[in-house]
């Protein structure tokens, strides 16, 4: 059932704490379901906003086990305290002191506070998680913190939709609702693949050492055209790869179009290469290449393959 409700930028700020995220959620509205909103939120959080937006959201949280400061986003921070309240209801003063000490060394190492989805977790579990994650490389920990923030955001979105739905007037009978759902279901069953609004393969580059988008990184997208279905490990034949498109990252770290706006992506093996040596001459990597496979069943999907880069390490993941 489609929901008609007004969700303002302030509401999205309480869910996430990032102003860029909140603005983009308003732009993407309206949503006909919580699931649709969460799908859009994940795309915005992982593929559209930059590291600065992640850090803004992290900074909006009070430190685990602490009360929010007077200058904080009060509604957002109060929600954080409420979510943590069960875990710390019976925590001793000495245990809180240990947590405070670990929070301090964590922040000194990574530059932001420890982020964890506290719902359903005990104080001991969160402290153990903090100690375990302290050993991570900064580039890895940044991504983990962003994923934990997304979990928090999704829980708050569910609460927001529940609260908003209570204010929506229910004027139709159960019978009419069931009829409408059957009609919608019929449309879904015969619907064609959704029209794309962007090329099926995209990327962006984040410079984790600077906490900012990597601007001006040259990017190449190629597809495997060898005699075998896919390249084998250690295959060095450059002639078996065909160039699909080239671009460079903009001020937000996003590359321009690397391929045409096609509906069905040709199945096969693709690789994206980044000229990291030119971007970071003193770094360890002259270039970075990421190869991935698109199967027949995935040809309607979107593949966002970002690079999180520092001079001596990098990581990647499949976005949407």
Q: Could you explain the architecture of this structure?
A:
The protein is α+β, with helices and mostly antiparallel strands. Helices cover 43% and strands 14% of the residues. The protein has ten helices and ten strands. The protein has helices spanning 9-16, 19-28, 34-48, 51-60, 74-88, 93-110, 123-133, 138-166, 174-190, 276-279, and strands at 201-202, 205-207, 212-213, 218-224, 241-248, 268-274, 288-294, 303-304, 307-310, 313-316. The chain has a four-stranded mixed beta sheet, with no helix packed on it. The longest helix is centred in the middle third of the chain and has 29 residues, at 138-166. It is globular.
